[in-house]
Amino acid sequence: MRRHSSGFTLIELVIVIVILGILSTFALSRFADLSSNARQAKMEAAYGAMQSAASIVSMACKTDEACDSSEEPAGGPGNSITVEGKNITLAYGYPRRTGPGIARAAGFEKEGEGVDYDLAQSDTNADGERLRVRPDGDTNTGECEVLYKEPQSAGQSPKIELITDDC
User: Fold this and answer.
1) Any idea what the Cα angle at residue 113 is, between residues 111 and 116, rounded to 5°?
2) pTM of this prediction?
3) pLDDT tens, 133-158?
C-alpha cells in the first residue's frame, strides 16, 4: 500500500514565497510615490478654497451696502467685511493677501489648531507682491504652491495661480 502525503513540498513553498516577493515589489513601488500625489491634491484643495473664498467675499461685499468695492487699501487696513463671523480685510472688494484677508477667508487660519499650510506673506517678483501657500513643513517641494495676488485697482479680480510642477 502506498501512503498519500498531505501538505506542500519545500519547492512549492519556495515558489510561493518568490511569487509573493515579486508581487510585493510591484505593489510597494506603486504606493511609495503617494506623497507627491498627496501634496498635489493638497495644493489643488488650497487653490479651490482660495477661489471660492474670493468669490464669496466679493459677492458679500457687493450685496452689503456698507462695503465699498472701489476702495483702495492705501497701506492701511482698507475696507473690511464680516463673513461667517470672520472679519476679512478687503482690497477693491476682494480679500487682501495680508492680515486677516484671503488666508482667513479660505479657512487657513484656525484658532487653537495647527495650520496645514505654510503661508509666506510677501513674495515679490515682477508681477508684484503675492501670498505664497505651500504644504506645511515640506521643504522637499520646489514648484508646489498656490500664489494669490490681490487686485491692484477697482474692477480687477485677484490672480490665483496653481503650480504643481514639482510636488
Assistant:
1) 115
2) 0.74
3) 888 766 565 688 899 999 888 889 99
